[in-house]
Amino acid sequence: MMRKVFISTLYIVLALFLSIFILLTSTELVAFDMSFYKKEFEKYNIARNIGIVEKDLIDSTENLLDYLKNKRDNLDFKTTIKGQKEEFFSPRDKLHMIDVKYLFVLGRKIRNYIFLTMLFLIPLFMYKKVKLKISNLLLSTAAVGVLPIIVLIILMNVDFNKYFTIFHEIFFNNDLWLLDPNVDRLVNIFPENFFYDIAIRIITYYLTTQAVLLILGLAFKYKKSLQK
After folding, report:
1. Neighbours of 149 (CB within 10 A)
2. Cα 146 to the chain's mean position, in Å?
3. What is the DSSP letter of 82?
4. Confidence class of residue 201 from pLDDT cuts 50, 70 and 90?
5. For residue 140, which of 11, 58, 77, 95 is within the disulfide window of CB 3.0 to 4.6 Å?
6. Residue 185 near residue 88, CB atoms below 8 Å
7. H helices of 77-191, where?
8. What is the pLDDT at residue 6?
9. Which one, of 32, 193, 204, lies nearest residue 107 by Cα?
10. What residue numbers bound the domain in which 93 lies?
11. How far is CA 146 from CA 20, 75, 203, in A?
12. Residue 204: which H helix or E strand, with range?
């Protein structure tokens, strides 16, 4: 009895780990996809709205992404805005991005730790006495990982602004994320609709991966049943 409880608990824990790994990887892929930013900037006329040429907007965004990748120490750079050379980001923008960068760095560390943990646990699926099955792990991951995302999708479509605010209140311990569109550039280049779009893209990547795991899990189960 205790053995079954242990194995069931292990499946759930590993399923959570794998789901978090998929979510963090999906976030990283979307967050650093410049083609996505270019489409969004064109969709919402960002360059024209803030009075900047498209190339400078793209270059500034690449600087921002390099900063989040830890390839750049700061966001101190100037760009021509409405004919005037000025700092692209406001002091408040820069302070907020310190917090955002921390979350990205933390997310990468968590993802890497999970990856190493999963590698370390691979032998458990090969050790017959433990009797862990890869098919059960894949099916558990799909079951455990999809439900919270479905709830999230529902909440996003009920009131995105409300839950976007709650997200910031959970992950930031200050009010630097409350930006002024008359002063702070971040809120102008990344309007709320942009964050809705990026959330949908991340969720799409995540659910697609979970669907693949579900199909693989079922395939392994079916193959196993044919061998009996």
Report:
1. 16
2. 15
3. T
4. very high
5. 11
6. yes
7. 91-121, 134-171, 186-189
8. 74
9. 32
10. 2-227
11. 11, 37, 10
12. helix 192-227
Q: Which residue has the tokens 């083609």?
A: 35
Answer yes or no: are the C-beta atoms of 107 and 10 closer than 8 Å. no
Provide the domain count of the chain.
1
Task: Indicate the SS3 state at residue 69.
Answer: coil
Residue written as tokens 């820069």?
94
Give the mean model confidence (pLDDT) for residues 182-190.
Answer: 95
End-to-end CA separation in angstroms for the chain: 25
Residue 216 to residue 204: CA distance in whole angstroms: 18
Q: pLDDT band at 118, cuts 50/70/90?
A: confident
- Tokens at 63, concatenated: 């600087």
What amino acid is encoded at 185 in this protein? R
* Cα–chain center distance at 42: 22
217 confidence band (pLDDT: 50, 70, 90): confident
CB 214 within 8 A of CB 136: no
Nearest-CA neighbor of 93 among 206, 195, 205, 181?
181
